[in-house]
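Data availability (excerpt). All sequences and predicted C-alpha cell strings are deposited with the supplementary files. A representative entry, Universal stress protein F, is shown inline so that the format can be inspected without opening the archive.
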Amino acid sequence: MYSNILIPLDLSHKEQVVDLARIATALAAGKPAQVNLLYVDQSFVHRAGDPQFDRALHEGHRKEALKEMEELLGDLPANTTVNTIYRDGTAHDQILETAEQLGSDVIMMMARKPGISSYFIGSNAERVVRHAPCSVFIVRCDESDS
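C-alpha cell line:
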C-alpha cells in the first residue's frame, strides 16, 4: 500500500520509533518499502548562539544522531530498507520539505494530546497535517510515555 514512508523522530523518545516502524511495515502490506528516519536539529533555529557556534561540535552531534538512528531499527522485514536523514531548521518545515523531496507516500509521526500551549502556538503535527503533500498518520503517545 505505502512504499516510501517518512518517520520524523525525536531522539529523546527513541522508544516511539519502534512503534512507528511496526505500524509503517504494516502499512507497507508486505511489499518492499523504504523507511526514511528524519531527525531535525532545531538548536540554531533562532541563531542566538551563532557567534559562538562551534562547527566541530555541531558535526559531532550530527554524526551521533545519524548513528543513533541507524541502530534503532534492526528487526524490520527483509524487504524494508532504512534511510537516515539529519536536517537543521524548524521541525515542521523540514518534515514537509523532506517529504516533498523524497516523494513520500505517507508521513508517520507521534503526537501527544494537545495542551493549552498548542492552542496558542500550534504543534508540529498540526502544521504537517495541514500542509503535507501526502497522507499523514498521527499516532497518539500516552502522556506517561513522554
